[in-house]
Design goal:
Its cofactor is pyridoxal 5'-phosphate. Belongs to the kynureninase family. Its EC number is 3.7.1.3. InterPro entries: Aminotransferase_I/II_large, Kynureninase, PyrdxlP-dep_Trfase, PyrdxlP-dep_Trfase_major, PyrdxlP-dep_Trfase_small. The chain contains 13 helices and 15 strands. It is of the alpha/beta class. It folds into two domains: 133 residues, Aspartate Aminotransferase, domain 1, CATH 3.90.1150; 261 residues, Type I PLP-dependent aspartate aminotransferase-like (Major domain) (Aspartate Aminotransferase, domain 2), CATH 3.40.640. It has a seven-stranded mixed sheet with strand order 4-10-9-8-7-5-6, with helices on both faces. It is globular.
Amino acid sequence: MTTREHARKLDEQDLLASYRQEFTLPDGKLYMDGNSLGLAPKRGEKALFQVVESWKEHAIDGWTEGENPWFTYTEALNASMAKLIGAKAHEVMVTGSITVNIHQMLSTFYQPTNERSILLVDELNFPSDIYAAESHVKLRGLQPEKVLRKVASEDGYTLSLEAISAALTEEVAVVLLPSVLYRSGQLLDIQKITALAHERGIIVGFDLAHSIGSIPHDLHAIGVDFAVWCNYKYVNGGPGSVGGLYIHERHHHKLPGLAGWFGSDKAKQFDMSHDFTKASDAGAYQIGTPHMFSLAPIKGSLELFDEVGIDAIREKSLQLTTLLRDMVEQRLSKFGVKDVTPIANESRGGHIALAHPEAARICKALKEANVIPDFRAPDIIRLAPISFYTSFEEVVGMVERLEKIMQEETYKKFSNERNVVA
């Protein structure tokens, strides 16, 4: 069989194929950028307009009246969200943004002492995580060059467990690492890292931006102390979507480092007392009033995850990315396109990262060919076929277009510089 015929057979066997109709797809384009921004779920759009209608109908009383009162809207999402990360519902809160939630978690957990002052991160992490970590070091009167330790990468794309283990010394107070590295797609071994950290008395947290909604997690059972994430990638919550945080129940006694009135016990919140009475669960680590219009689409999207289950999502994702990387090896390696995502299924997330010196201009050529990729400086093309709405035949079509671009060198008519938004 040709690859396209094989892809069509896989599409015929795809148990998730019907969910493609649940999304608004870009007309005439092959969308491979769901790891940056998921496409719009129709149920998410419906949930958003329900909030708009509730505002129109109830005005201020929308906080307590209507089908989905706003005052407890976030709490109503927690059980579904918890399934995506293997947590208990009361350990999860849909709130804030990913960076705000990092600030909340570090302000709560990073309490340096003379014996333990190191905040451990990694040199490949997304810049916002590093900015947040640096700010907490400085706020405590410490110098980043002395106490902000970065796990080094041997190849510029991945992190080894050995390097992480070596960095987890007795001076480390908190470690914050990504679950999946945003450039290469490497999936870290959360269970082993957590065990190593806890053996040495270290608090461990993860940024799940590139894994939530793509791979299953088991955070509670593993004992991860905290985690943060965004919901606009694989969870399809929309641009600027409200993020989320997880904090293991054994830490729920801790006062939030950044207190705000929506972290109050809900029965006490409108007492308007200046004495903070924290919520007894992860809700304590909220700060301000929920952004309802950015929150509502998550509700509709989570309905889809409840129906399908994260295990089925992961199974199809691995099939899609396996097909993609096999075709890359067969058709694109001769052009110097290098697959830098780890090979083993247990070591990779939901996207495939291709390295090439001309990556920026290749991405521009792909867009001209009606393929939506993602560029990450200095030399990475990220491609993310999404289980809910990408077909196997689309993966084949995308690689065929990329092969033609490389054969005909049409990318050379573009500059090899990123656009303002890459």
